[in-house]
Design brief:
The chain is an alpha/beta fold and 460 residues long. The chain has helices spanning 13-22, 39-46, 62-71, 89-97, 109-126, 140-152, 163-172, 189-197, 216-224, 237-247, 250-282, 290-304, 309-321, 331-334, 342-348, 351-359, 369-374, 395-410, 421-430, 438-454, and strands at 5-9, 29-33, 50-54, 80-84, 102-105, 132-136, 156-160, 177-181, 207-211, 229-232. A five-stranded parallel β-sheet has the order 2-1-3-4-5, sandwiched between helices. A five-stranded parallel β-sheet has the order 7-6-8-9-10, sandwiched between helices. Bound molecules: fe (ii) ion. Fe (ii) ion binds next to loops.
């Protein structure tokens, strides 16, 4: 049994001890903080199940903390219990409006705190908060019935009329289960199941088939494709909940929590690496902000190509980290204002390989390796480190090369001022097919043209 994790934010040490004594019948892991300053980083790392905070926090008002947590999608579901002493009705009302799970006054602490926490944990065991279900059915009455019934049980529900629309939602949102009809226009349940089964991004999402008794053939095919369960129509919401309870077994919930924890760890890791890049760029005022700008352009290109939200986020990371290997380049070469000798240029040319050796030690971002290693390859084959040519260069690396070139042309250098946007575009067009991939250049020009409307404004 995994212990619940509780964070106590209270500057009074004896009061923290008292809270733990009151809650001692609950076998939990505790983390104690004296104030809520920088608590988001701690919460991100610990992924607690409950926050207990003093309404009169020394660094910010308890309601302020609550508002901050509710605004952050990672913590909007995190229950918060605020504690105070003789607070005004107005303050308590503000806490309730901000979504506090409970307000406990110090005078009632001994009788009410334990029962409030127990109630909370019982509730979350019954209603797995935060589980997202995608309902796919062409019948509006079925969608409405499921949306209402499942939402009442604490599930978060999104509905789609057919498989095609469901795929669009899956592209941009995380779902923990798909509940799908079989016969639907545009894309039916079997086609949807096949598509998801073949995509490693979605094949792990449990797929439940809703079907009629005389559709055994399709049902069998979908079960062979890995569907988790089927439920025969017509069914009532209680029957469906029983099926869901079986699927969202304790082990599955543990897996969800573990995934959330890994997500949090990855965010921390990436913020550490990003700080490292900033420190690297701070060495040279002429490249300051370069990685961030490349990240903006690369993710804009991926968006232009119709990439999913996840792909756009990966492109942002890839852009930020593309030059991470420059950490291994000595200052006297990297910051040298004049021309480089052949030996010095050869030293600079090792940065993609150094970058790749850093990134490949972190499995969660291994998918951006092609950008790190190949962003200096040239379309005509005269680039480095491998001398790859044409379409043998990974697409995102070709896109990064365009972004990198644009930013180099438009940035100031010790020996020249950065070029105007239009002149840089003219040069980029000229080198398409030689240094840069022509398709990627075309995409970049398209982006620049349509950019203003889509927030892709890269002009300095
Ligand atoms: Fe580079």
């Amino acid at each position: 049994m995994v212990k619940p994790r509780i964070v106590i934010i209270e500057n009074n040490l004896p009061h923290r001890a008292k809270i733990k004594t009151i809650l001692s019948p609950i076998d939990a892991d505790y983390l104690e903080l004296s104030d809520s300053k920088d608590c988001l980083v701690v919460l991100c790392k610990m992924r607690p199940d409950l926050v207990l905070a003093n309404l009169k926090d020394s660094s910010q008002d308890g309601v302020g903390l609550l508002t901050l947590l509710k605004k952050d999608p990672s913590f909007s579901d995190l229950p918060v219990i605020l504690m105070g002493h003789g607070e005004s009705q107005g303050k308590i009302a503000a806490a309730i409006d901000s979504g506090v799970f409970a307000y406990i006054d110090a005078t009632e602490e001994e009788e009410n705190l334990l029962s409030a926490v127990e109630k909370l944990f019982e509730k979350s065991a019954e209603h797995p908060a935060g589980i997202r279900i995608l309902v796919v059915d062409d019948s509006s009455s079925v969608r409405l019935m499921l949306q209402k019934g499942l939402s009442q049980e604490g599930y978060r529900v999104q509905t789609a009329e057919n498989g095609k629309i469901a795929l669009k939602f899956l592209h941009n949102n995380r779902f923990d289960l798909i509940l799908s009809d079989v016969y639907m226009p545009e894309m039916n349940g079997l086609e949807l199941c096949e598509t998801l089964h073949g995509d490693p991004l979605y094949s792990g999402i449990p797929f439940v088939v809703m079907s009629t008794e005389n559709d055994a053939g399709n049902m069998k095919k979908m079960m062979q494709l890995g569907a988790a369960a089927f439920i025969i129509k017509p069914f009532n919401i209680e029957q469906l909940l029983m099926t869901l309870n079986k699927i969202f077994s304790y082990e599955f919930l543990l897996l969800l929590k573990e995934n959330e924890r890994l997500d949090g760890e990855q965010k921390l890791l990436l913020s550490g690496i990003t700080s490292l890049i900033k420190a690297l760029e701070a060495r040279d005022e002429y490249t300051r902000g370069h990685s961030e700008r490349v990240s903006l352009i690369l993710s804009g290109l991926v968006r232009q190509l119709g990439g999913s939200q996840r792909e756009i986020e990966r492109a942002q990371i890839a852009g930020r980290l593309h030059d991470i290997g420059k950490i291994g380049i000595s200052d006297n070469v990297l910051l040298k204002p004049g021309c480089l000798s052949e030996a010095e240029f050869n030293h600079i040319k090792t940065h993609p390989t150094i970058g790749a050796s850093i990134i490949q030690t972190i499995p969660s971002i291994a998918d951006i390796l092609p950008v790190i290693i190949s962003h200096h390859e040239r379309f005509d084959g005269n680039g480095y480190p491998q001398g790859l040519k044409g379409l043998a260069i990974p697409l995102w690396a070709r896109m990064t090369a365009v972004a990198d070139t644009y930013d180099a042309l438009t940035s100031d250098r010790p020996y020249r001022k950065g070029m105007e946007h239009d002149k840089a575009l003219a040069i980029i067009t000229e080198v398409a097919g030689g240094q840069l991939c022509p398709d990627t250049v075309r995409l970049f020009l398209e982006c620049c043209k349509e950019g203003m409307a889509k927030g892709f404004n890269i002009q300095k």
